[in-house]
Specification:
The chain is an alpha+beta fold and 296 residues long. The chain contains 6 helices and 16 strands.
């Protein structure tokens, strides 16, 4: 059996012509290469010297030098690759702390800051600022308070629903209990003297609607502002179905109110077009929608 001492002797004889310590210039050259190579942040620098003791460790030391050179080459290759969102480091650059990344765990109900095109009909709508298809163009903001009415506490997916999104008719509902906002462009109204005929809207459109048969005034007309424009606010109720006139571009239904309706209406002129905003249900919850309107 060969003893450990015999093995040491054999190896000593085999390495007799080589040093028991790696030449300093080999280590220095390897380390100098690494030192001159830009290193990624967080990479620990190697010590200046690698001292190896004993003949059996010489091969390990050589492997270590190879590993050092390989690490240097690896760092060189790594630093030469483009990194998305990372700046190229320089040898004298002072390491900077890596910015933290915030991760959202659940959907947020905070309204978005930039307007988004309002989705089509019969789809859910979440808090945010939207631009519908309505003409004259407008944007409005749906806030958390509106969508959370009738929603379970802590529910992250509270929403409204777009019922109609047309150039002359916008309808969005919330709840339960159901409450909604309807916006109409009124190009023509029914001619009271000639059934089946239409005429241009009168200049006092709010008073004209309040005077139609079947309509009663709940709260007298008051002056207000909508989107920076003067408007008339009036609360009415109906004891029968009432038709005020057609909706431009819509054939199967007109602008009117069903029996037992009690809306709050805002009537105003926008870029030469008569516009009627009708709130149905929870006026207080819907008022922020009216206040958020900006005509574009």
């Amino acid at each position: 059996m060969t003893t450990n001492r015999d093995i040491d002797k054999v190896l000593d004889d085999w390495f007799i012509e080589g040093p028991e310590r790696i030449a300093d210039w080999v280590v220095d050259e390897a380390l100098l290469t690494i030192e001159r190579t830009p290193q990624a942040r967080g990479v620990m620098r190697l010590p200046r010297r690698l001292i190896v003791f004993g003949p059996l460790r010489l091969a390990g030391a050589a492997a270590a030098v190879v590993a050092v050179v390989a690490i240097g080459a690896g760092l060189l290759v790594t630093s030469s690759q483009p990194q998305l969102g990372a700046a190229t480091a320089s040898p004298n650059a002072t390491p900077q702390p890596t910015p933290s990344i915030a991760i959202t765990a659940s959907p947020s109900l905070t309204p978005v800051t930039s307007p988004t095109a309002l989705p089509g009909e019969n789809v859910f709508v979440f808090p945010g600022t939207y631009v519908p298809k309505f003409t004259p163009s407008l944007r409005l903001t749906i806030d958390d308070a509106v969508v959370t009415i009738g929603c379970s506490p802590g529910e992250p997916n509270c929403h409204g629903q777009v019922d109609t999104n047309l150039p002359a008719w916008l309808g969005i509902e919330f709840g339960p209990p159901q409450f909604d906002i309807q916006i109409f462009r009124v190009d023509k109204v029914n001619d009271p003297r000639n059934p089946g005929k239409v005429i241009n809207p009168p200049s006092n459109l709010a008073s004209w609607m309040a005077s139609r048969p079947g309509v009663s005034i709940v709260s007298a007309a008051t002056s207000t502002m909508v989107g920076g424009l003067p408007a008339t606010q009036i609360d009415i109720t109906t004891d029968r179905d009432v038709s005020f006139g057609p909706i431009p571009g819509v054939r199967d239904i007109g602008f009117g109110l069903g029996r037992g309706s009690s809306p709050r209406m805002f009537v105003l002129q926008v870029q030469g077009h008569p516009v009627v905003i009708s709130l149905n249900g929870d006026f207080a919850s819907l008022q922020p929608l009216v206040d958020s309107i900006v005509w574009q």
